[in-house]
Automatic annotation (TrEMBL):
This is Ketimine reductase mu-crystallin. PANTHER family: KETIMINE REDUCTASE MU-CRYSTALLIN (PTHR13812:SF19). Its EC number is 1.5.1.1, 1.5.1.25. GO terms for molecular function: pyrroline-2-carboxylate reductase activity; thiomorpholine-carboxylate dehydrogenase activity; thyroid hormone binding. GO terms for biological process: thyroid hormone metabolic process. Belongs to the ornithine cyclodeaminase/mu-crystallin family. GO terms for cellular component: cytoplasm. It catalyses: L-pipecolate + NADP(+) = Delta(1)-piperideine-2-carboxylate + NADPH + H(+); Delta(2)-thiazoline-2-carboxylate + NADPH + 2 H(+) = L-thiazolidine-2-carboxylate + NADP(+); L-proline + NAD(+) = 1-pyrroline-2-carboxylate + NADH + H(+); (3R)-1,4-thiomorpholine-3-carboxylate + NAD(+) = 3,4-dehydrothiomorpholine-3-carboxylate + NADH + 2 H(+). Transmembrane segments: none annotated. Gene3D superfamilies: NAD(P)-binding Rossmann-like Domain (3.40.50.720), ornithine cyclodeaminase, domain 1 (3.30.1780.10). Homodimer. Binds the thyroid hormone triiodothyronine (T3); T3 binding inhibits enzymatic activity. It comes from the Eukaryota.
Length: 356
């Protein structure tokens, strides 16, 4: 078993080495090298892990604790924990989109990665995805690229995971009704994360095209109420997730129950909105990254509100979680979330490939 695994490892790393037939597991230690060091020494190509495999390797139960830890590390602003600049974006004017570059280094954890993400303000008739991404995972010592991964599954799951953490920390105790606005990729991952990690008595969905909401209901299989208007979906809801491609407010403060928690995921450009001013001004606003929100969130910038705290500040016990007040978690997405998710995928991939 061990020899087979080692041969696969050497093969993956393209290391031309004959392994003695009497080779014993404890002899590996004499090499004193790790899989990625062996691969780097051999100039091996990165492993490629595409969408289906990422999905099969990543699970919320393992991902969410890592995200929570990473959000706390980010907010500690300790450069040995996380170096993650605000995303730099290149406009793709002809295609109504942006390329976002999201490098992250976690020195203490030995994790170095960057995500390349293209996101678009697609017209109604387009069948192309709104978000397309790739994550590169590198060895920080050698610079060797260890893995190239599909970034869509990672983006969907880590974003939903961060929103689920926001709800866990900020929704009122005894929350029963979840409303999801938008029924695309993020809606699916949020539905999964929220129903797996939290418990709700009712899930409502709304989409600007009703057939999209009906399709969503059929594909998730669980009990979901399709609503004909945003107001109908959110009235009385304890937790509201906004995951639309809208660039104008879809959620109005006057419909939101006082004390509700809103995880606002769309509208990630300085001139795009999902929430109206009345909601932004009424709520205590939390963000994944304060700098990110001030640079990229139209809901924050154009409403003129202050970000009260980062989610990591709450995790670190530096800022309170106002569960009884109306709260908004403005999610922009962070490289550190991609880094821990990609590292987890790589660990799981190695364990599976080499039966470690
Ligand atoms: N905060 C973060 O970390 C991330 C944010 N996003 C953002 O989240 C949003 C959703 O992303 P995906 O689910 O991947 O997109 P998607 O295209 O799969 O789904 C978008 C949903 O919005 C609906 N929609 C389209 N135009 C609309 C409009 N004018 N008004 C209301 N609804 C409309 C669509 O019918 C669909 O249900 C996008 O704005 C995306 O940029 C995506 C990834 C990460
Ligand atoms: O963090 C990400 O990934 C994204 N954030 C906002 C827009 C789409 C992708």
């Amino acid at each position: 078993m061990f020899k087979k695994a080692l041969l696969r490892l050497l093969n993956a790393a393209q290391i031309p080495l004959d392994v003695d037939s009497n080779f014993e597991p404890n002899q590996l230690s004499q090499f004193r090298i790790s899989v990625s060091e062996a691969a780097a020494m051999a100039g091996a190509p990165p492993v490629i892990i595409w969408e289906r495999e990422v999905e099969s390797l990543l699970h919320y139960k393992e991902l969410i604790p890592r995200l929570e830890e990473a959000l706390g590390k980010f907010s500690s602003r300790d450069s040995a924990e996380v170096i993650q600049p605000v995303r730099s974006t290149v406009p793709l004017q002809k295609h109504n989109g942006f390329l976002g570059l999201m490098p992250t280094y976690m020195e203490n954890d030995g994790v170095l990665s960057t995500k390349l993400v293209c996101f678009y303000n697609r017209g109604a008739g387009s069948t192309l995805p709104s978000v397309s991404a790739t994550v590169l995972l590198l060895d920080p010592e050698s610079g060797h690229m260890k893995a190239v991964m599909d970034g869509e599954a990672i983006t969907n799951m880590r974003t939903a995971g961060a929103s689920a953490i926001s709800a866990k920390l900020l929704m009122r105790h005894g929350a029963e009704v979840l409303a999801i606005l938008g029924t695309g990729q993020q809606a699916l991952s949020h539905y999964k994360a929220f129903t797996e990690m939290l418990s709700f008595k009712e899930v409502r969905v709304w989409n600007h095209r009703r057939e999209g909401a009906e399709k969503f209901r059929r594909s998730v299989g669980g009990p979901v109420t399709v609503c004909g208007s945003v107001e109908e979906a959110v009235r009385g809801a304890d937790v509201i997730v906004t995951v639309t491609r809208s660039i104008e407010p879809v959620l109005c403060g006057r419909w939101v129950k006082p004390g509700a928690h809103v995880a606002a995921v769309g509208a990630c450009r300085p001139d795009w909105r999902e929430l109206d001013d009345s909601l932004m001004k009424e709520a205590v606003v939390y963000a994944d990254s304060r700098e990110g929100a001030m640079a990229e969130s139209g809901d924050v910038i154009l409403s003129g509100v202050e970000v009260f705290a980062e989610l990591g500040d709450v995790i670190n016990g530096i800022k309170p979680a106002y569960r009884e007040k109306t709260t908004v978690f403005k999610s922009l997405g962070m490289g550190v979330e991609d880094a821990v998710a990609a590292n987890l995928v790589y660990e799981q991939w190695k364990a599976k490939a080499y039966k470690l």
